[in-house]
What does this fold into?
Amino acid sequence: MSKIAVVYWSGTGNTEAMATAIADGAKAQGANVSIFTAGEFVGKNLDEFTALALGCPAMGAEVLEEGEFQPMWDEIKDKLSGKNIGLFGSYGWGTGEWMATWKAEAEELGAKLVVPPVIGNNAPDDGVLANCQALGVALAAV
It folds into this structure.
């Protein structure tokens, strides 16, 4: 059985809603899913999980949230080589550049993205939530 960690930071609830949809999609496939905020995930053993979903909204000048998410990312990123992951998040301005930058870094680290990143503009609509559920299904299949 797949064991998946869904790790996110959310300031407005948009990325949290996306995390919940990902967890629902994975659970529907029989996966064992644990949901963590970025602050709660610090120090967790990545080897406990068969896959990770990592979510963060765009902040500032199209960067990851710097208080909790970026430090957690910095802690785990060198352990992602060969790991199956999914990236997701929301934005309220810009073009989604933060996600393109984050995806490129994850791939350079050797992480395996199971599907393209899922992004939503502001509150996730039904289409974005469906894509999140599909991300959960894909993570459960690895």
About this structure: The chain has a mean pLDDT of 94. The chain is about 40% helix and 20% strand. Residues 81 and 111 are 5 Å apart (CA to CA).
